[in-house]
Each structure stands twice: as C-alpha cells, then as structure tokens.
Amino acid sequence: MKLILLGPPGAGKGTQATRLVEKFGIPQLSTGDMLRAAVKAGTPVGLRAKAVMDAGGLVSDEIVVGIIADRVLEPDARNGFILDGFPRTVAQARALDELLARTGMKLDAIIELKVDEKALLARIENRARETIAAGGTVRADDNPEAFKVRLEQYRAQTAPVSAYYASRGSLKTVDGMASIEAVTRAIDSILAG
Running DSSP on this structure, what letter comes out for residue 75? Predict the structure, then answer.
C-alpha cells in the first residue's frame, strides 16, 4: 500500500497515518525525519543535504527526491509506505511521478483531508489547551500565530499539489472535519475500492 496523505496542518494526517501504519504494517515516511537520518548516516544524498543545511539554505527538491528515492527502496518500505510532508510542491509531485516510473512503483491512493480553516484554528487552540492541561509541552507551531503562517505556506505551496493530482484524476477527498473514526472509515473505503 503506497499512499500520499494531503491536507493542511492540523487536518489529522498524523492521526490517520498512525492508524494506517498499524493496519498495514508500512512505514510513515516524513521528509524531515528522512533528511535527518540521511545526514546522520552520511549517505551521499545526506552529505549534500548537510552541506546545504549547514550553509543555512533550504534543501532543494533534487536532494529531497534523492532521499525519498533511497528510502522507498529500503526493506521496511517494500510492502508500501505513507508519504508525510511530501510532495510539498507541484515540482516535487512531478519528480515523485518520475521516481515512481523509474522504479516501477505505483501509488495506490492520494487522499486529501478537506477541512474548514476556521475550524482548524479552533482545533489547534484546543489541542494546545489539552496538552497544557495534561501537563505536556505545546509544540512551538501549535500557537495561533505560528499556525496562521503554516496555513499560509500550505495555501501558497502545497494546496496546488491537490489540484495537480485532481487534474490527473487521482485525488480522492475525505471530510477531515468528521470524527476521527468516520475519517478512518472513509479512508478504508477508498483503499478497499
């Protein structure tokens, strides 16, 4: 099962990805985690990424795609994977298409969690309150101002990825404002179909 989960920050992608990992026994591949692991392992692509990051630059699409290419060929991803945080741009989506074509892989589903942005802000504020009440530490990006910046970045860079996949007829959407269980059932239905 090879999947992409799309949706703005706070849409519930992480919650659903965790459930899919448990159900299918496939890894959730986070570009940030993969970048850090490649740098730590000293892979050729990781060394290129480290040089860019050490210079204070943003890691190029070419480097990110190289890290994805290495990671999806690892044994634990043989039966599938969930891409988390990738592709972030249409250029990355096109590069992923090329990578999949080269490796003979095919995505089983591209699922977008559709949500109401105002309700998302309330969801983030509530998550922060619950974390504090439980004695936890709130993520730095779980405050309303940081969230608004993340949402603007999503709209500018990542939302066009949904349109790209929709134009190709491969995007499926789920109501991300439904309960966690209802979203899980809707995703299961897409994957079974």
Answer: G
